[in-house]
Amino acid sequence: MASERGKISRELTDLLARGRDRQLRLAVTGLSRAGKTAFLTSLVNQLRHAGLEARLDMLPAAREGRLLGAQRLNQQDLGVPRFPYDQAMAALNASPPRWPEPTRGISELRLQLRYRPARSGWLTPQTTSLTLDLFDYPGEWLLDLPLLQHDFFSWSQAQTRAHGPQRQALFTDWQEGVAALDPAAEADEAQLAELAERYAQGLRRAKKAGFSDLQPGRFLLPGELEGAPALQFFPLPGLIDTQRAELDALPAESLYATLAQRFRYYQQHVVRPFYRDHFRRFDRQIVLVDVLGALNAGPERFDDLSRALNHLMQSFDYGKRSLLTRLFAPKIDRLAIAATKADHVTPDQHPNLIHLLEALLAEPLQDLRFADVPVKAFSLAAIRATQAREVTQQGQQSAALRGTTLEGEEVLVYPGDVPATLPDAAFWDQQGFNFPAFRPMPRTTDVLAHIRMDSAIDWLIGDKIT
Ligand code: GDP
């Protein structure tokens, strides 16, 4: 009798817990071209085909045949664009297949997952469901968090500190324009707009050249703010500490005060609302990183990615005294970091890829563990575009990849070894790392081929569908 009562109360507790957990808000981020659009497309595709042809062996609910699939629901927040899943699938189904157009701002898609709970009893329903709200937003927006702890003066100093020569060279237009500015002169609107555009061009050039540590984030992905005066500012180079009081005392119409005022506007009306209205409400988060792309692009880009990730990860540092905790009290309780496009290297290199990702994020990972935020690293391919092959060369077996380049050429390549630790000068001197971009593979089923999407899905939502 007592044990029967124990069972009932356990089942009641289960039921209540499930009731509370009926909804999960999962966010996907990463810098541009990290693979967010591909990831979210594949995630939705895998979950929709979960009870059918999808290969999700590392997700217990799917492996045990309890996950019955997913349907799209209308989202709650009508102010956020819907993630264009159908368009993405149409591109992948085209002949020849194309990569989906990347999303450029925040987008959302709501799924209802149906599954049979593992433990059944008279209080547990036969099937139950979880509402999964998926969000995709640019990692560039997170680069703006550190900007909240600055005023215009200290931000200018931080932004104009020595950067590498390659990066500086991309800003010469802007540098020539700002060199002659007098902070005390009256602000000239047209001149500010022109110089802000030159600064934005420098950032865009740097982005194109593979640099990642770029602020303000909205200069790269302005969304609805395109052309607005909120984006017409830039840092002033050459400010020295002893000037601060004098500059702060300048009248409101001065160039310095105008730039400072726009900087404050950007903080209050662009950066804060994203954290307050969206970020604060995410339950789980995956951060995607194109580690292999940076290896391909050389040492200065690789170092820059490392710096950018260190800034970006500050948004997940929930130490009690962190800026974020003080300002917004976020509630992300589980985090995944993933090196994307793992199908660009042979499977024997995948463990190294994870080690390298962990090395890149060593400092933020240490902070997260200290703050007791569960975090796990993965290497994955959301949409696998190559096939692993063994080739025999002069009697020696070795691993290789077969795929089709974007130009349509079928190739068999060995892209190189991935270092397990941060690459040093010797790595860059001795070992080339080179791979082409591949075209998605044509398919005979509706399901997208992937590498370890199931492991990532298990970490992110598996505990909610037991
Ligand atoms: P986003 O800007 O973060 O949304 O990045 P996308 O998802 O648009 O990905 C950028 C590009 O990376 C794509 O156009 C593809 O060329 C490539 N890519 C993304 N995911 C994969 C993948 O799983 N495998 C391969 N081979 N390439 C990928």
List the helices and strands and how they pair.
Blueprint (H helix, E strand, L loop, with lengths): L1 H19 L2 E8 L5 H13 L11 H4 L3 E7 L11 H9 L13 E9 L12 E11 L13 H8 L5 H5 L2 H8 L9 H20 L8 H4 L23 H5 L6 H23 L6 E6 L1 H7 L1 H14 L10 H6 L5 E6 L10 H11 L1 H9 L4 E5 L6 E8 L2 E9 L5 E4 L11 H6 L22 H9 L5
Parallel strand pairs: 1-4, 1-5, 5-6, 6-7
Antiparallel strand pairs: 2-3, 3-4, 8-9, 9-10
Helix pairs in contact: 7-8, 12-13
This protein binds guanosine-5'-diphosphate.
Description of the structure:
The protein is of the alpha/beta class and 466 residues long. The chain has helices at 2-20, 36-48, 60-63, 85-93, 152-159, 165-169, 172-179, 189-208, 217-220, 244-248, 255-277, 291-297, 299-312, 323-328, 350-360, 362-370, 425-430, 453-461; strands at 23-30, 67-73, 107-115, 128-138, 284-289, 334-339, 375-379, 386-393, 396-404, 410-413. The chain folds into 2 domains: 23-140 and 279-385 and 442-464, Rossmann fold, CATH 3.40.50; 142-276, no CATH class. Helix content is 39%, strand content 16%. It has a 7-stranded mixed β-sheet with strand order 2-3-4-1-5-6-7, sandwiched between helices. A 3-stranded antiparallel β-sheet has the order 8-9-10, with no helix packed on it. It is globular, with a radius of gyration of 25 Å. The model has no long low-confidence stretch (mean pLDDT 89). Bound molecules: guanosine-5'-diphosphate.
